[in-house]
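Example record

The entry below shows one chain as it appears in the dataset: sequence first, then structure tokens.
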Amino acid sequence: MGVFQPEKTHDSKISSMSYALRWKHENLRQISTAAIVSIAVTLMILLLVYSQSRKQVYLVVDGQMKSIQTNTSLLQEMLDEQEISLKPQDQISMPLSGAISDGDKVVIDRASPVKVTADGATKHLYTTAKTVGDVLKETGVKVKESDIVSPAIETSVSANTDIRIVRTNKQVVQRHESLPFRVVKTSDPSIYKGESRVIQQGSPGVMVQYIEKQYKDGKLVSMKMVGKEVQTVTKDRVIAVGTKKKPVPVVTEVKTAVANHSSTPAKVKKVSSSSNNRVSKAGVDFSYKKLLKVSMTAYSSGESGVGTRTATGTRVTEGRTIAVDPSVIPLGWWVYIEGVGFRRAEDTGGAIKGNIIDIYYDSVQQARNFGRKSGLKVYVIGPVKPELN
């Protein structure tokens, strides 16, 4: 018994293909529209993903800021993308391996090469310090107030800044200077003319000078005298020179008396007696007008408010100038002060009243050490200084 097969004809196959072509033709527009929509959706998705991964980062390099658009995730990747290289000494506000986000601000301070010279050594280094003072703190170089820093501490640091520190110090030393003694000759009426004898042996004095020396990096650059004082007073050599006349042998003449001739009485020459106001001091004989007992102080032009010009217009001079009360000792007159010597009344003072004398010294310290002395004898001589015999 056979199987019944449906009848297949050529017409049925053709009708099937026609149907498919007809469907494709009728739906081509819908297919194209669907494809375009699919592509657009894909592009939008990709664009959305891309836009979400893109970031805006603010990069500040040495104070200059710029905005960067990037799709990178790490800081190192962004720097590589921007071709920005760093030195090990540069400072950065976040790790290179750190993740970056939209709106982040990254600060980079580039290190500058500088040179620091101090204490005989020179260092070459890179630093991000802003001023010379910051560099010195960073390197541990200590600076004293007396040191010289070049350029100044507050100066801004730039590339290849050359910083130098000069160590300075001052030292005061003593220098001793010998003061030669004088040879003073004085007349002595007890010794015959042509003869002499030494009354006092002379000895030199000693002047101490205080010398300030300034050193720079251990080398002496200057020195000056800042004070002086007499450590040992000079002792004059005093020689007595005879003024006594040697006796002359007397020759007796025998004359024959003439009768009725009377001898003529001899004339006697009167010798005037010397003045009582005459003395010999420091090998000098002089007359004086009056003898005073005074109190004595000392002053110096180095003191505040004391000038170098005297009331008589002269310049103050150690060993000569004294201040007096003009009503007691006239200005311009010479005096002899026991234990001090000859001085000239050239100056006055508001506190100098009566029997008070202010003696001048160059050194403030020596004037202060003088203190106040009372009961000193002062011989008031006159406007002319006595000369050595």
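Notes for this example: The radius of gyration is 57 Å. The first strand starts at residue 55 and ends at 61.
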